[in-house]
Amino acid sequence: MGDDSATDKIKGKAKEAAGKVTGNKRQEAEGKTDQAKGGTKNALGDAKDRAKGMKDSLGD
């Protein structure tokens, strides 16, 4: 899951930068959205890892 989130963030930064250079506000906004999506995926993965850790510790 970490790879997907990193890919989204990198892709988003590139889109945002390209949008700024070309003056394309839509592309710039799409880039920001992709970056946010990457951050959300990362946070979801972290939450799943924490939940699994808690479950494992309760099982012992």
Defining key terms:
single chain; 60 residues; mainly alpha; 2 helices
Summarize the structure.
By secondary structure, this protein is mainly alpha-helical. It has helices at 2-22, 25-59. The relative contact order is 0.18.
**Terminus-to-terminus distance:** 27 Å
Summarize the amount of helix as a percent range. Answer: over 70%
Q: How much strand?
A: under 5%
What oligomeric state do the depicted chains represent? single chain
Give the class from helix and strand content and strand pairing.
mainly alpha
Q: Overall 3D geometry?
A: rod-shaped
How many helices?
A: 2
Question: What is the string of helix and strand elements?
Answer: HH
Low-confidence stretches: none
Kindly describe this structure.
The chain has helices at 2-22, 25-59. The mean pLDDT is 90. Helix content is 93%, strand content 0%. The radius of gyration is 16 Å and the shape is rod-shaped. The chain is built from two helices and no strands. α1 (2-22) runs antiparallel to α2 (25-59). It is mostly helical and 60 residues long.
